Amino acid sequence: MVSNLPPGQFPDSALPFRLPLVLLRVTSSASSSPAIIRVRGLSKRYGNHTVVNDVGFTLAAGETLVLLGPSGCGKTTLLKMLNRLIEPDAGTVEVNGSDIRTQKPELLRRGIGYVIQQVGLLPHYTVAENVAVVPTLLGHNPADISTRTTALLTRLHLPAERYAGQYPSQLSGGQQQRVGLARALAADPPIILMDEPFGALDPITRAAIRRDFRELEELRNKTIVLVTHDVAEAFELADRIALLDGGVVQQLGTPRELLFRPANDFVRRFFEAERLSLQMQVLQLSDLLIFIKSTNHQQSLASALPSLPASATIREALEALTRPSETPDPQLFITQDSVNAQPVTLSQLMLAFGEAVQSIKTTRVEE
Ligand SMILES: Nc1ncnc2c1ncn2[C@@H]1O[C@H](COP(=O)(O)OP(=O)(O)OP(=O)(O)O)[C@@H](O)[C@H]1O
């Protein structure tokens, strides 16, 4: 019965069983959609050095998998084996059920978007010509290419009337990166591979492009494999993370699973320095509802206070609650549906956050 409810909504009768629900959410994993990428036993050696060692995973359509790990752990090598830029020594990659070795590498790559840190725009092509490269190679209708190019550039904050005719050297690094993203999306491939796509950008541009990335309609249904060594970026963008060390996947799971159920000491240590901030990014208001004391409130107050959905993260709630305010203990409403709204003050939220984290830890120890 409880599992049929949307996240964050619990019937009163479920009260005594609320604690295990927090745990259940930690263990919930990948989607059950059909696999679009299936990797088995993938290995690559250079001389005596095994840089990717027996890696396997299955990716559902629409999923974003982040390959995370320290420098030199094999992320780029693994990514490049997915579009045959590097051939493995062992193992297989299947895309939509067929072994990629049965396709010519250049044909395979036209069907898989690829975004890299160095962007790799063609310097003597205009922005519009760069975006149009793959659809042109695929023989798409020129009018359709032009319409899509204009739409993509506009969506990525590069209005075509201003930027379409410019050359890459006339653009900033962030603008070039946006053109790189538009180019990867131009032929509407179902799969996009991204290698440190935001790595060369300053923190503000990086945050802005990451926000666009999350909100971009064109990316919504794509299956994405993204390489990064930035933990916060991985947690922000991933459905699942494959954390690598020495070419071996140390753990593959949701950000919650890696944070709250680390498979080994390497995984635990990897997130240690940013643990608090990651917990605030991973836990949602819905996880805290059971720890917030219900108070009677006037419905009329709801419209006067800021509100956030129960799916908002603790970080988003803290951002909302710590804006300059006249009130010593500001509050907001957590909206669960059109009828139910739970008021919470900043101090209640902090207390509930502490209790939620503690309860997850406690439940683990008791297992
Ligand atoms: N062509 C090559 N010849 C020999 N060694 C290589 C080659 N390409 C990569 N390596 C080695 O393989 C290991 C993994 O490299 P890879 O670029 O996949 O790591 P990475 O995790 O992407 O690192 P980074 O985050 O620094 O980009 C490194 O030790 C690297 O030196």
TrEMBL record:
Keywords: ATP-binding, Nucleotide-binding, Transport. It holds the Pfam family ABC_tran. GO terms for molecular function: ATP binding; ATP hydrolysis activity. Residues 37-271 form the ABC transporter domain. The keyword Transcription does not apply. PROSITE patterns: ABC_TRANSPORTER_1, ABC_TRANSPORTER_2. One of its GO terms (biological process) is quaternary ammonium group transport. InterPro entries: AAA+_ATPase, ABC_transporter-like_ATP-bd, ABC_transporter-like_CS, P-loop_NTPase. It comes from the Bacteria. Belongs to the ABC transporter superfamily. This is ABC transporter ATP-binding protein.
